[in-house]
Amino acid sequence: MTTLFALISIALYLMAMFVLVGRLFHKNGPNKTFALSLAALGSLTHLLYLAEAIMGVPGQNMSITNVLSLVAWLITVSMLISITVLPNVMLLPGVLGFAALSVAAVLFIPAEHIMHIELQPGLLVHISLSLFAYGTLVIAFLYALQMSYITHRLKQKEATFIHSSMPPLMLVEGILFKLLLVGTCLLIVAQITGFIFLENMFSKLYAHKTVLSLAATAIYILLLVGQKIWGWRGKQVIGLTVLGLALLSLAYFGSRLVREILL
């Protein structure tokens, strides 16, 4: 049954993605109601599959593939919930495609990292905050890509195309900085809880993760300060957003990818 949930989830995500992509640039736009219904059902079956994949063992299997798929689920649900107030239709196909790939990764790439989070409430707080921070900053990265694309089209003097199929640049930019602020605050609090509840943040096994995540936090803080004080926009913002997420991804997944998948 769990494998069936995974296959159904992948199929629904891909169907929703193709419904959106097929008429993304049509003057009437895609059939959002149908696509979002498919995506919502996909996220439900995705959750059912993840529940078994993570909780179906003694303890919790927080393998790299399970965590990545959980992050993909959080991002997908956040985007679906926010679609009524945020301009994210252009971003949804990529999000849904990533979610489908993450389910396939759990299904076809076996990995195991057993934890007993129920015995360490502080660890649960730290992991939850870290996941929400990462998910928020990934969404910010997507909006940075959208902002870059809109800026490029405007420079090419294709304003008619922009206004007919994309949100205004200033709206996307405003959402981007709000997401960066929220994600950075969550990341800082997650790191504080790590230092409070964990005793091995600078041990040989986790030192690189701590250093990289602190470096990513410094990048995001610099970005927000630069925007507030010096009015940074455009390339500086996009470049630092990409760099911050790259460092954070290496911190969260780099060594685990080697240990759990490659070795």
UniProtKB/TrEMBL annotation:
A Pfam family this chain is assigned to: Cytochrom_C_asm
All residue ranges annotated as the Cytochrome c assembly protein domain in the record: 40-262
Organism: Alteromonas aquimaris
InterPro entries from the UniProt entry: Cyt_c_assembly (IPR002541), YpjD/HemX (IPR052372)
Keyword Transport annotated: no
Keywords (A to Z) from UniProt: Membrane, Transmembrane, Transmembrane helix
Name listed for the protein in its UniProt record: Cytochrome c biogenesis protein CcsA
Transmembrane segments: 6-26, 33-51, 63-83, 90-111, 123-145, 175-198, 210-230, 237-255
